[in-house]
Design a protein that fits this description.
The chain has about 450 residues and is of the alpha+beta class. It has 22 helices and eleven strands. The termini are far apart.
Length: about 450
């Protein structure tokens, strides 16, 4: 396999980072990527989107996260090269000729993200991983030009790591697995900036016990408890930060806001910036995509607060000025009541298509740890003294207890007005509010009378 090398900088560049202390850049290609306009765009895209409406400090960007993943990847390569260097081909140890490739892949793993990524992708049918690969392989991008300085086929090789098709599983799993540089960085970084302690784990211990093997990356058996700590940190971050009901409410408003804008745009009655118009029309290009960031989106939202359409104007104000919807827990049985609730909401003057939603946090877009099913190809393996591998939950009762548990809840979102009398609303709606509230107890939807079991 080709050995990729980059010209070294005359002097190492060191960036200060609140999470990792320092980020070290020695290779010219890494520095050229960071300077590229496509990578600098990441400064203008928040890592956590609407989560900052709940945790005000969570306004950090994908720019520093990508740098953090690069730094952790670089450190892991250093550890592997020192402790587990390959001696003969096929021995399952680390071949340091993969270093530059995996460092570039770590730096670029999220380059395809757009503003409000998950909401945007769902509504406009984009995929940040596929777009990221296009950015890397497109000859018109500065990133592609930087990568080609290493070798003509280097952009394709980097893209294949992100696509998980690169033949060396050690390289792929260093940035994409259940315990990878990506997750290790975003947990610590998100915890730091949101001001919570949940996502903090003993990273130095994790790096001390990580090692390569023929099929990817594993951990030595004396580090099992450090990996347990990491899994518990993930679980708590999902419950307390990523699945927070107010953050999810703001995502619901954002989705309906863009949905309403799309509907009005089709009628030709929407004021919108040219870059976003391409997406509403469904005829965007990669160049259009690279012009989008949080600022562009918020400029449109601000314009829409004065839109003639009352629903669009109201949703824009709700999003910009943090007016979340209320929510209650639902389950498979009580879902049958939702048409009744939506009808009451409609009678109270709200279009249920834009002011209600069901939102499930079960394993989306995160999961604490699932060694089987959709993530079976990225189990966390613990290497025993004899070299055998045992999946983590088989050794840890704590992780086994988390495995298979529900990682969130399903909620029904609706206007807060339905929960209490609002002086701005006509008195005629008071009976509707009272009827609506009869279906709610302790934050959950309930039957007034339990249906008889057949």
């Amino acid at each position: 396999m080709a050995r990729f090398q980059s010209e070294k900088l005359k002097q190492e560049i060191v960036l200060r980072d609140p999470v990792h202390g320092y980020i070290h850049i020695e290779d010219k290609v890494i520095f050229d990527i960071v300077k590229s306009k496509e990578f600098q765009r990441m400064r203008r895209i928040k890592q956590l989107g609407p989560v900052s409406y709940v945790f005000p400090g969570g306004t950090h960007t994908r720019f520093e996260h990508n740098l953090g993943v690069y730094e952790l990847t670089r450190r892991i390569c250093d550890i592997f090269a020192k402790k587990y260097p390959s001696i003969i081909p096929g021995d399952g140890l680390w071949g340091d000729d993969n270093r530059l490739l995996v460092e570039c892949a770590g730096l670029l793993h999220d380059i395809g993200h757009g503003p409000y990524s998950h909401t945007f992708e769902h509504l406009f049918g984009t995929n940040h991983e596929k777009i990221g690969q296009k950015i890397i392989k497109d000859p018109n991008t500065e990133i592609n030009k930087a990568l080609k300085q290493v070798a003509p086929n280097f952009p394709e090789q980097v893209a294949s790591v992100i696509a998980k098709t690169y033949p060396n599983p050690q390289v792929v799993k260093m940035i994409s697995s259940q315990a990878d540089a990506d997750r290790m960085d975003y947990l610590q970084r998100d915890a730091y900036f949101t001001g919570v302690n949940y996502g903090r784990f003993d990273l130095s211990h994790i790096l001390r016990v990580i090692r390569p093997y023929q099929g990817g990356i594993c951990f030595t058996n004396n580090g099992m408890h450090a990996v347990e700590d990491y899994i518990v940190s993930r679980y708590q971050m999902y419950q307390q930060v990523y699945f927070h009901r107010v953050g999810r409410s703001m995502e619901v408003i954002l989705h309906h806001l863009l949905e309403r804008a799309q509907d009005i745009y089709k009628e030709g009655n929407l004021k919108v910036t040219p870059s976003l118009a391409k997406f509403l029309a469904g005829n965007w290009t990669l160049e259009d995509y690279l012009k989008l960031d949080d600022g562009v989106m918020e400029t449109n939202f601000l314009m829409w607060t004065e839109a003639q359409d009352p629903i669009l104007s109201d949703l824009a104000k709700r999003y910009l000025y943090r007016k979340p919807l209320a929510s209650i827990r639902i389950d498979e049985e009580t879902k049958n009541l939702l048409p009744k609730l939506k009808n009451l909401i409609k009678q109270a003057g709200f279009n249920p298509d834009y002011y209600t939603a069901t939102n499930s946090a079960f394993d989306e877009p995160y999961d604490a740890y699932k060694p089987t099913g959709k993530n079976a190809n990225s189990q966390i393996e613990i290497m025993q003294d004899d070299g055998s591998l045992i999946e983590l939950s088989q050794l840890s009762p704590l992780v086994r207890a988390l495995n298979g548990t529900f990682q969130g809840d399903e909620r029904f979102f609706f206007p807060k007005t339905m929960l209490s009398h609002n002086e701005d609303q006509p008195q005629i709606f008071e009976p509707l509010y009272e009827q609506f509230q009869k279906y709610i107890k302790n934050g959950a939807l309930r039957y007034l009378r339990r249906p008889r079991k057949k």
